[in-house]
Fold AAA+ ATPase domain-containing protein.
Amino acid sequence: MAEDVTNTVAGKIVDLLFSAAKRETDYIRNYTKNVDKLKNEAQKLKDMRDRIQQRINAAKENGEALLAGVQNWMDKAEIEMSNVEEFLEQEAHAKKTCFNLRPCVNLSTLHHYSKMAINKTSFLLQHQEDGKTHESCVSIPTATPRLVDLYQRKNLDDIDTHKLVLRETIQAIKDESIQMVAIYGSGGVGKTTLANEVAAEVKNLFADIVFITVSQTVDVEKIKKNVEVAAKRMMINKEKVLIILDDIWEPLVLSDLGIPCGNDHMNCKILLTSRRMDVCEGMNVDRNICVNALKKEEAWVLFKSIVGDEKLANNSSLEKTAKEVTEECGGLPLIIQAVGNALKNRPIHIWKAALDRLRKHVPLEIAPEIRKAFTHLKLSYDLLESKEAKSIFLLCSIFREDGIIDMLSLAEYGVGLQIFDNLDSFNDAVQRVEMAVDTLTSSSLLLSEGDKVVKMHDVVRDVAFLITSSSEGEKKEKFLVEAGKGLTEWQPRNGISDSYTKISLMSNSIEKLPDHQLHFPLLDTFLIQRNGLSIIPDDFFRGMKEVTVLDMSWNKIISLPQSVKLLTKLITLDLSWNVSLNEISILGQLKDLEILKVRGTGIKVIPEEIGQLTNLRLLNAGDCRYLSDVTPGVISKLTWLEELYIGTVEKNAVSRLGLMEISNLKSFRVLYLFMGSYDCDHFPEGTYFETLQEFCFHFSDNRIMDKNRLKLYLNRRLRIAYSNFPFKMPIKKLFQVSDGILLREIKDLDNIIPDLYGDSIDELKSIELDRCYNVSCLVKTTDENATQTFVASNDLMLGQRKTTKEKYFSQVEQICLHKLKNLKLLFGCSLQYISLRNLQLIEITDCDSLLTVFPLSVAQGLSNLRCISIVRCCSLMVVISGGDEQTAENDIVFPRLTHIELGFLPQLKSFYSGDSTVKYPSLEFIQVRNCGSMKRWGSGVHDMPNVKFGDDQQILNLFHKN
């Protein structure tokens, strides 16, 4: 028995020894296999990292917040890949140095690296497994900035009337026994301003504040959607929320709007504003607070702040008149601002004439809530010196109440209504609208809502309607505005339509129109965009032959009615985004058309009949996914065409879009063209697009490229993806005149100069290169006569030679370089040729061969640089290089630099390697992540008066060691 046990134990020991020996032998035998597997898994992890990074970038562009753990996973991925790269470098070195020695050394080395490869592979596999969840989701949507956070507080120090209302309202909201508070008062008295002031004052008391403008037409579904999140936070999380309902015209049932109320929901505070106290009482408000007109002294304080205190103090006669004008404004801030802005730069005789008009009686038929406003706001309107500004003001009233009004629509409608005298071009119309809007906003007749958009106060809108209905000595106007009122049908009554000049039914739910002939003999504008129309009765337009502006965009129209051809005076026609509309030949009979928009429709061809529209200024056929042909000769017949927007995903279609015919158009200035990457090499000769004032050429098989960061204000943008260098002549010409270029995955491209440009790139403001793997630098030459060489070898310059050494990149504002794995340096030339005086942003990611970014002499000229972002460049050693004792006396100053981000740069030693004093007077933010070799920011003095280092020990250590 003992012998059997001994034999069993001995056998197991032998098996264990054999297994161990076999495992150790396998390390040696499978060395190549193990190392190759490590390389493969490292590449898989890198690809996964890149995919997740793309999602992160998209999330950041959308303002979303990253999920917990995502950034940590990315950081670990960088560390794992960096470790693998270091290991593979050691392994490659070991092959060269060790494998030629004794066999035991060879075997020992094989064993070591094979075992290490297996261990590292297991870490990579586990990290890939951990990252699978992030490939589908990396972020959560973040809330849009609340109005309360964006609101600019008003100075109410000398306006006791408003201060008292503000104080009383805040006290009521803080009172735990009160749920609903209302501010009521006449139109223009400042209720909305006070509601905003309340929200700004108490915002720290609430988890969420929702501000909703209700207006006369109550959009229940919109209100429900806006309060949904706040209601959940209040009911589920038991958080306190404040809901502000501004401009209520009739009692509302809050529960029908999705707003929790009652004793069970006292953590939901509600603030209402209304012109009528009975509305507030009808909603059982707990505390009604009246806001009265400003007292005489307060009105005078506000008026002086608008007109200018010194101007009035230095002219006693003007001051006396100004006080009388102020008294006529009735203490309403809206009117005080409008009248003050209208008169502040006028001579005294205009002030006195205005005072006489303000003292006249107001029309009796005007509703009481705007009776005071009419005369005063009409005065501001009457004092507008520009007829165009007056027309634009009235045009704004046909948009929905409290709706956003974009200036491009105003320009398009304005062209159709012929409100611009001596119009040079459509671009001229756009500029004149911008000037008119600037005049109207400075006169307090419009409210600016951001870039190229405005709003109109509802009181001002009412006054605009009254102006149109009481025109004296002008073209008689009468508007029918039913925009955004939730209409499901429209059946105008006979006998009341004869006098209408403009009808706006936009933004409703109308699905069908009257199937009989209508009589609108004076109608010039008919707007019915954003409804649900699919069929238009054949006779519908028969009774409105004077129409010059027709907008039917964003409907479901399948075909155009026969009566549309009777609209022979039509100038502006918008049919955009009727995706089922595929036939537009009938439009050829509308010979006066100047603006035709069929963007996003289902058309397959621009038909021959469109060539009859010889007055056309603008043709927008962009985003027509089935469009593949423009009938030959059509473009050349459009002799006054200025702007063309067109594109297709059809392969080989570039030759069928009539581009060659553009060169015959003397007024042509704007072309937006989307084509597949294949057509880049088939772009036609002789098109002379370099003379265009504005263009965007997009050659790509992926429309996502449209979302790149080429600045939208750039006028001449060129985007090319998935193509080969060298480009043929027509495309090369475009580079010379583009102010922004984006190149993605362009094979065989080595540099910007001289590959794409000769000796001059003065127009270029934005450079973005992405995955152009052959690019080794932006400029490549060491020849002092490089300028001559470039010009002589560049057929774009037709053999002309220049002997002056011009500066490269002097107009460039943005440089973005992504995944250029062979980029070794930015400037492979004499640095006297380089000027980056206008550069604002430089962003470099995944450029693994790059050693340095800015030489000292270039860095000293970065007077406009605002942001530096460098991430995942594994060879980068220093951002600014150069400098010695001789140059240390010359300071480097970055006067506008505010942001520096450095991340995952394992070889980075310092930001600056020289000894000069570096001054960063505007710098506010520094981020350094995973830069393990960086022990100090740089030698010399680094002056950063506005940087708040906080408790980031890594950053602090960098500067303590300077």
Remarks:
- The first strand starts at residue 65 and ends at 66.
- The CA atoms of residues 511 and 594 lie 28 Å apart.
- The chain has 24 helices and 38 strands.
